[in-house]
Amino acid sequence: LADAHEAHHFYDPLTGTGFPGVRTEWLDARRLSGAAVAVAPATAALDWLTAADNPLNVDGFWSQYEKAIAAATPGERSRHLAGALVAAGGLLHVLADLGSPTHVRGDVEAQFEQVGASARDRGSRIERLAALAWGRIGVPTATRVVTRARLRDFFSMPSSAGSAGSDQVGLADWTARSFFTANTLPMDSDITRTNVPPRLRRPAPELPTRLNLMAASNPDGATVETGAGVCLARYRVSHGTVQFSLDDACLLEQAGALLPEVQAYSNGLLTFLFRGRLQVSVEAGGLNVRRAGALGAGSVVVFGEDARGVRTELSRTAVTSLGEQPVQIALPALPARAVVMFRGVDAAGESLIAVGTAATTDRRR
Fold first, then answer.
1. Which of 10, 16, 43, 241 has its CA 20 to 30 A from that of 37?
2. How far is Cα of residue 74 from the mean position of the Cα atoms in its chain?
C-alpha cells in the first residue's frame, strides 16, 4: 500500500467488507521498504466515501465546489475549485482501485504477493504488470461512459451484483464477478470423478461446463477464456488432478480488459459530480431559473458579479423542486452579470450543485 489511506480502497461486494489488515511478515517487509501499511482492519471503500476521517470525502468535494462558485474573488474561487478537483481525484482513486481484482475479491495475500527479486518488493501482480505495460498515461481508452443515478452505484450496486447478465452494476461488482485472483481460483479437481466440475471458491466467474482435459494434459496446459477471448485462468492436468493458475501473460490480458472499464466508470463518475446546469434568462424585474430535468429540494442563490469578477450574494430562495417550470427571482436592481447556483438534491435524492449565468447588460458600454 502506497499510503495508509489506500487501505480504505478495498471492498468485497460478496461480503460487504474491506481490507482486513496484514500479516506480520508483510508488515516487516513493507516497513523495511519505507512504505506505510495498515495494521488494523480498515474502513470499507463504500463507507470511506463519506467517512469523517477521509480528507477527500464526498462532503468535502461538495463543500469546495460550492465555495468555488460562492466565494467573493476570482482568486478565492480558483483555490476552492482546485480543492474540489483534488477531492474529486480522491473519489476517482477509490473507484479506480475497485477495478483491481485483488481489491474486490477478499484476496489480501495476492495484494502482498512478492512481485520482484527482493522479498520486500510486494504488491498486486496485475497492478505491477499494468504499470509496466502502460504506465500512467498510455492505458487503453474507454469506448463508453457509464451512467448511474446515484454516486454509490458507480462503486457497487449490491441488489444486482449477483446477476451476471445485468449491466446495472458497480465497478466492484463487475470486477469481482469477472476475474479470478491467485487465491480465489477454482479448487483443484480429481479428474477420475466424472461429471463433477471443479468447485469454485466464489460464485463467479463461472467455468465452462466442459474442460479440454486432453489439451490440459500437455506441458503447456489449456486456457479458460471469457466470451470476449480474454484469459481467465490456465489449467493443466497433473497426476490425475486439474490445477488452475494465473501467469503473467494471462494477467496482462485481464489488465487490458479491466483498464477501459475502469476509465468508463471514472468518466461517468466525473460527469456525475459536475452534472449540474441551470438555464437563466433575464426578465423584467428579475431572473427566470429553470433546468431541463427535475431537481428536488434545495436553495437557489443569486450572485451579482461586477467588472472585477467580485461576487456578492443578492438573494437566496428555498425551493421544493426545480424543473422546466421556471422559478422567478425578483431583484431590485440587476447586476452586470448574474451567477445562479442551485444547492440541493436531484430527483433521486443525490447531492447536486447546478450553475447558470446570465449577462444582464452589455459590459462593453
1. 16
2. 31
